[in-house]
Each structure stands twice: as structure tokens, then as C-alpha cells.
Amino acid sequence: MEGKFKMSIRILVLRAPGTNCDEETARALREVGAHVDVIHTGKLIRREVDIFHYHGLVLPGGFSYGDHVRAGAIWAKKLKARLGDVLLEYVEDERPILGICNGFQVLVELSLLPGWDYESSPQATLAPNISAKFETRWVYLRHENSGKCIFTKNLPKGTILRMPIAHKEGRFLLAHENHLKTLLLKDQIVFRYVKPNGTDANGEYPHNPNGSLYDIAGICNPKGNILGLMPHPERAVYSWQLPDYTSIKHKEEIRYYADGWYIFKSMINYILEEVL
Predict the structure, then answer these.
(1) Annotated active-site positions, please?
(2) Is the pTM of this model over 0.90?
């Protein structure tokens, strides 16, 4: 009965021309017990699919529309022009939305993150990496949230995690200097890049791989039901995906799941407790 109950959770993974992490993300969600449909944005725009049929929405990584203009901009404009009111209703219904890498860029372009004023122009951006090149590497993150973010409910504040990044435009910046104080005050910073020992990266490359302000790797909206992050949790679901797996696989304490699993599991737990 438990398995059947879990499979009633329906998650929409939305794709667009250029996204390339759809199936990895869908597999991660199925691993935690969800039924997942990977659907093209066009079907949503043409109203062939009802977003409210799904308990949660995920915008995966990739290079939507070739990252023309800037990363995530075209995908976001299409969604806002044709589905803006529907998305806002979905958010106000407090259903979970997860944006990974390119998906994070889209959520920022939509002003769903930081989420202070949906009608305004974006209050943040994910600018080109300070190295001016594509960065792909495993990074260390520190969980900074005090419990607001529904995607990290099971992670104590201060937990150190490992996930990979793969992006050229991941440098998180804010429109105004005082916005950082607002993020801190509202407990919206979820992940920061850190050194392997868990201490602040302080902008130091490669620990902070892109030059993000305050080493920010992921944020949530004020209600905590929307999370955007640049690292890829779907590529860190299983221990065999870890870069040092061959050297640690014989250790007794090795876990079957890796750190990214907790994000998807927390999403499902929230749906079970608050949405269904």
C-alpha cells in the first residue's frame, strides 16, 4: 500500500529545446517514489497539459534555446508571456518548484526567485562565471537554511554536501546592495560554496567556482516552496556517482545514496505532508 500511495505523487519535469538533464532528473524523482512526466513546454503553453494535475514542478538543467540573449531568458519570457498567471497561481498554492542550473536561471528571470515582487524586473541574475569559461567540477556546499526551505527540511543547518556543477553563467548577483541583507533576514539563502573543510570559500576559486556574491549557490523564495540552485543534485543521487567512489566503495559506512538524494526526498515528503 505504501508504494501505491507514493506513486500517486505526480511531478512534472518541464523541458525545452536545449535542456539536457530531463531524464536524469526524472530518474532521481522516480527513485524517491514519484510518478514523473517529462513534457515539452509547448504542450503546456498550448494547454494540452494542466500543470495543476501535478503536485510539483521541476525545471532541469541544460542550455534552453541555446542560452541566446542570456541563460534562461528566452525560456522564461515564453513562460511568463503565455503562462505567467498560471505559474503564479501554482506558486500561491504553495506547490514545490525546483530549478536546477538552467532552471535556476529561468526562475530568476521570472522573478519567482528571490520572489519579492513577481511583477518587477528580475532582482537577481546569474552572470557569466568570473573565469569567463565553462566550469565543470565537484564542489562542496554548506546548508545555510534554518528550516524554511521545504527541499532541505531533513538537512540540519551547517551540513556539508558534495554535488557537481556544469555551467558558464552561474555567478549569482543581486540588483541592489541591500538585497543581500534581505536574503539573510528572510532566511532565503539555502546553499553556499565552501572549502572541503566546510569553512567559507570567501570567493576563492575554485571553491567558489563562479564568483557568486557571498558564495551563494542556491536560494529559496520567502515561503520556501521554490528552490533554485546551480549544482546538479540529480547527478549526486547515488554513491556510485561520487568522484571518489572507487576508493571508498569498500568502506563499511558508505551509503547507497549521495547528497543530492535528500533534496528530492524532501520534496516528496513535503508533498505527502502538505499537498496531497
Answers:
(1) 101, 232, 234
(2) yes
Residue 68 region by backbone torsions, left for phi larger than 0, else alpha for psi between -120 and 50, else beta: beta
Cα(274)–Cα(76) distance, rounded to whole angstroms? 27
Q: How far apart are CA 99 and CA 228, in angstroms?
A: 5
- Number of other residues whose CB lies within 10 A of the CB of residue 269: 16
End-to-end Cα spacing for the chain: 16
Task: For 199-217, write each residue's pLDDT tens digit.
Answer: 999 999 999 999 999 999 9
Q: What is the DSSP pairing of strand 160-167 with strand 135-143?
A: antiparallel
**Cα separation values, 233 from 29, 118, 152, 257, Å:** 11, 26, 12, 11
Pair 261, 247: CB distance under 8 Å: no
Q: Is the pLDDT of residue 191 over 80?
A: yes
List of residues 6+ apart from 267 with CB closer than 8 A:
11, 29, 32, 56, 96, 98, 150, 151
SS3 call for 129: coil
Task: Write down all domains in the chain, each with its CATH number in brackets.
Answer: 2-275 (3.40.50.880)
Give the β-pairing of 35-40 and 189-194. Answer: unpaired
Compute the residue count for the chain: 276
